[in-house]
Amino acid sequence: MLLSNRLHYALLVVLVLSSLFLVLAEHEPLSVISQNPPSMAFDSNLKFAKNKRAVMATFANDGGASTNNGSTDNGNWEFYGIGDQVGVNALSDLVYTYSRYVEKTVHVLTNWARMSPSGFKTRFLNLFQAEKSLETTGLPPLFEHFNLVESGRFHSKDMATVPCFQHNSCDGTLTFTRVATFYTKPAAMAENIAAGQTSPLSVTMAWINSDGHRANILGSSYTLLGVGHYPKVAATGFSDYWTQNFASGSHGISNPIVAATHITFATDTVTFLANYYHKADLGKGVAPLNVSIFINDVEYPMSIPTSSMYTDSSLNAGTFEYNTTRLSSGTACRKYYIKAVDSNGYKYYYPSVGYLLTQGENSACTSNYLRAVRPGETPSCAGVNNCNGNGDCLAINTCLCKAGYKGSTCNQYSCNLVSNCMNRGQCTGPNVCTCQSGYTGASCNTPTCTTLNNCNGNGTCTSPNVCTCKSGYTGSDCNVFDCSSKGGCGFGQCTGPNICTCPANYVYGSCDLSFDAVISSPTFTSGQTVYTPGSMDIVFKSTISSLSAYSSLSYKWTQVSGTAVNLETISVAGTDKKDLAIKANSLTEGATYTFRLNATRVSATGSVSVSKDLKITINRSPTISSFKVVNATSGLEISSALAVKTSLRASLVATDPESFTMLYSFGYYTQENSKVYVAELSASSTSPTFTLPTFSSGQVTIFFAVRDAAFTTVEKTKVLTIQDPTTTMSAQEVSSLVNSLISSTSLSSLEIANSLLNSKLTTTEKTSIRSNILTQIIASTDSDTAKIGLLERLTNQPSEITSDTAQKTLNLLSSISTSLKQNLQSTDRTSIVKTVSQLVSTVSTSNSNFASQLKKVIDASQVGAAMSLVDGQSSVSVSNLVKTAVVKSTIDNFNFSPSQIGLSSLSLPKDSLKKLLSSKYQLDSSASVSISLSIISQNIYSHIKTDLVSSIISINILSNGTELEISDLTSPIEFEVDISLMNSTMMGLCQFYNTQSSQFSSIGLESIKISNTRVKCRTVHLTDFAISPTLAQQSVNQASSSKFYFIVLFSLILAFIFIQ
Q1: Below-70 pLDDT ranges, the chain
Q2: For helices 803-820 and 784-794, what crossing angle results, to 10°?
Q3: Which end of the chain has the smaller Cβ count within 10 Å, N or C?
């Protein structure tokens, strides 16, 4: 393949095709690339600087002289091995840099093809592909530049070890970025690569037989060459990897022996080759008288066959050769060097000092170069101070410095064997480095992090004061625990390397799932036993929260131990909800049960299940052995008494089977009124003294209840006939008696006073007394629940309630409802609804605050109901003018008949609601919410003076006791409302109460006439709604007009699109 900087788009295609070719080809792959590179600058800390040294070390032993062959101390080392004693003054570094014989052989064969193209083809005709040809005009040889050799070796090793097969490095580094890291000043560059060829001749011929590769080999703009070879090391890939890097640039070499090597063309023959070129730009420019080879110090003549001669025969240049019998396996290396003498008598040697070795000739010969003085050489180094005793005199005034020294007189320290201190320190002795700050080690190859406490032992110092932390640690000095490998710790904390410590009830490895289940019903723990009363619903509630996205959460309650029960049958709303409510009196007293909740989260990464067991013992009820009501004066048991006047005493004897502490409650009730407590949950009220109010029915039920510490209550009752004492009293006496009673803040006294408000008192008197009773109720320290019942009875005559009394009553109810919340019992909520219903008719048409205060009381009661319910339960309270319902469930499982509170129908857009709850409140589809519904008399908005033909319909959604703002739904909520009878020309117009303008508005609502007495409303938001009358034709016209405008607008948009 061929790459050009003028065809950048072709690069990707070519690289992809070459990678595909590498995978699919059955024969050895080749690749070629060439470019005139842009000017480039390189960071000294590039990874190539590190990898470059690794390549040098890999090839060091092949040179046979050192463990490092990559130094460049005086700038001359790069023009090594050419025998020019004038141009080379110090050889200590030079001799370490000879390329391996397979690389040098490729180099020599490449020069042969350049200088004698047609002759090269003739010599190797049997290896040529028939359609290939070589140019007839020869080219000057390429001079070896070791920087390019390094580049080629690096890339061959990279391809062999990763492995890969491409011009860019296996990590994606661009080709010319890599080459220029080693050789920084090219005007032109090119590269050939190959893999799978096992010999220098086979890879050279493979390139020669490829048009693109041959074009690089015969490129006239190139003067320098480096060949890099690396054998296969990875489990996959090819057997050998080869790289040729071509470059332009001045070589500065005056020795006409350009390169020499040995090769085995036949199994029993070794051929020695030497490229000779003496054109005038090499200096002397004269033909050689003879070229000879010294093998083991014996001279043999070399000849230049016609096929090896330079195309311009007058130059007498080309590739000289000498053939000899190959040594048998196991024999030691033969050493050799080349000598040429020109017509001027100048002598040239290759290498200039020492010997090349016949590496690869047999299995015993594994070295490439021998550092030694050749016979007959008695050089003098007097002119270079006899090498200062730090080297050997190899040629006239030419020193071969000992390890650790360099320079023309070997008077400078060298640190070749310690990688020249890696450019991170100074060479202050023979192979002794003084490292700069931030590095240590013999070759300054180890960065230090002393200012970072050496990474606290939790990481590796990879650069000066730069730590690369181990898994589980982070921070500049690796002193902070890290749990990112497991996705963080969610709700918990990272308290160790990849160790999350989760809070209580948080589970799963990364603390991303919070889960707990508790007994919500009243319980009492004695020792290890948890008791709960079986006489009321037993409620278990769970909480679950997930930080990770999931597709579903499912729940299942099961029985684990205890007397077997059909849990599905005795549960209030089923066993597949997050909460479980077991119906009262479904479990056996004294028995122990264990129930388990299993919750499963399903996500894209799989499913996670968590569970919790809850163990309860059903408490055994206390036993009442005796209960009677007596006249407190005579001590005789009675069946009737005079209200207010007769002092009574109740007595009770009870025991508890568990010996738990018992509390007592005492009071009375009638068929019309709820319980009135004379004493509530008192430890000493086993024989209270009391009087009773009057009752319209003339009868009252006395109750005495016992509750043990485990909240199990038993009760005994007795019915008494009560006589009204006011029948024989004057109005003044009644008034006096009532006023004396309301001087107390005791609710029992106030209850009696309220019962005496009969026909003997005027409406004005009763109105005043009710106001005074309310004042005392507010001041009373008795329980809030007792106040709720009394307020219901106090307001049961709306005509005797002033607006001020009504307002104060609402304020007190609002405070009680907000305070008690989920502790409000269903009977209490019913009393609140009845009280509010009684107060609606007292609304003043000028009181704009009354509606909001009344709504506040109802909403607070609804919040309390919502918080007390479990998933699948509902609570309904119905009175004359106010009807309420709360339903707790998921949106998907919402199922409630709104007719229970007077709403004809209700339909929720489930998908639209779920989407809104998820995006706005992060509530997933498995979350339970509470739907709050209220139907309230239109009187509460009478101050607006809007003609309404329906009650007020209030619809809200709550979560954890908080009202959620529902608006901008993508699909509407629908409900149907019954309205006052209208004729066929009229219809109901759906409106909502706008809290900002304090007016009703129909904007955004859709009204559909079902009949003269029913209308359907569609809305995309929730608030208070009502129906007002309007002309049916007007409504239809409005709807038709809207549809018409929409059709026109849509048509205009389509027309615009088509015109465009």
Answers
A1: 1-99, 130, 135-136, 234-235, 279-286, 311-316, 507-509, 843-848, 1033-1060
A2: 150
A3: C
> Angle CA(565)–CA(569)–CA(573) in degrees, nearest 5?
125
CATH code that applies to domain 633-747: 2.60.40
Cα distance between residue 479 and residue 461, in whole Å: 13
pLDDT value for 636? 92
Contacts of 12 (CB under 8 A, 6+ apart): none
- Backbone angle region of 64, left / alpha / beta, with phi > 0 → left and psi within -120 to 50 → alpha: left
Q: Which residues pair with 719 in a beta bridge?
A: 701
Domain 633-747 in the same topology as domain 101-370: no
Residues 356/375, Cβ–Cβ less than 8 Å: no
d(C-alpha 14, C-alpha 273), whole Å: 37
What is the C-alpha radius of gyration for the chain, rounded to an integer number of angstroms?
52
Nearest to 292 by CA among 336, 335, 334: 336
Distance CA 782, CA 445 (A): 85
The SS3 assignment for 929 reads: strand
Tell me the two tokens of residue 784: 């809030």
Other CB atoms within 10 A of residue 967 CB: 13
Sort residue 467 into left (φ over 0), alpha (ψ -120 to 50) or beta.
beta
**pLDDT value of residue 249:** 86
Arch. (CATH architecture) of 895-1034: Sandwich (2.60)
Per-residue model confidence (pLDDT) at position 234: 63
Tell me, which fold does domain 382-414 have in CATH?
A: Laminin (2.10.25)
Residue 215 CA to chain centroid, in angstroms?
A: 53
d(CA 62, CA 43): 30
Give the sign of the dihedral formed by CA 258, CA 264, CA 266, CA 270.
Answer: positive
Does the CA dihedral 147-153-156-160 come out positive or negative?
negative
Angle at 637 between CA 634 and CA 643, to 5 degrees: 80
CA distance 347 to 289: 10
pLDDT at 285: 52
Into which CATH architecture does domain 101-370 fall?
Answer: 3-Layer(aba) Sandwich (3.40)
pLDDT in tens, 940-994: 887 787 889 999 999 999 998 899 999 999 999 999 999 987 777 888 999 999 9
Distance (Å, rounded) from C-alpha 834 to C-alpha 883? 9
User: Residue 311's pLDDT is what?
Assistant: 66
> What does the alpha-carbon distance between residue 79 and residue 251 come to, in Å, rounded to a whole number?
7
Query: What's the distance, Cα to Cα, between the start and end of the chain in Å?
Result: 46
Note whether 77 and 71 are within 8 A (CB): yes
Q: Which of 934, 933, 960 is nearest to 867 (CA)?
A: 960
The Cα–Cα gap between 689 and 650 comes to: 7
CB 665 within 8 A of CB 680: yes
The residues, ordered by sequence, that sit 6+ positions from 51 with a Cβ below 8 Å of its Cβ are 154, 158
**Following DSSP, what letter does each residue of 639-688 receive, concatenated?**
SEEETTT--EEEEEEEE-TT---EEEEEEEE-SSS--EEEEEEESS-SS-
Q: Tens digit of pLDDT for each residue in 440-499?
A: 999 998 889 988 999 999 999 988 999 999 999 999 999 999 998 877 888 888 999 998
Instruction: Yes or no: say if 249 and 223 are a contact pair by the CB < 8 Å rule.
Output: yes
CA pair distance 934, 865, nearest whole angstrom = 13
Give me the residue spans of the domains in the chain: 101-370, 382-414, 513-522+534-618, 633-747, 783-893, 895-1034
**Contact indicator for 809, 791 with CB cutoff of 8 Å:** yes
DSSP strand E in 358-486: where?
369-370, 391-395, 398-401, 405-406, 412-413, 425-429, 432-435, 439-440, 446-447, 459-463, 466-469, 473-474, 480-481
Fold (topology level) of 513-522+534-618: Immunoglobulin-like (2.60.40)
| pLDDT at residue 487, as a whole number | 79
Q: Is the peptide bond before 163 cis (omega within 30 degrees of 0)?
A: yes
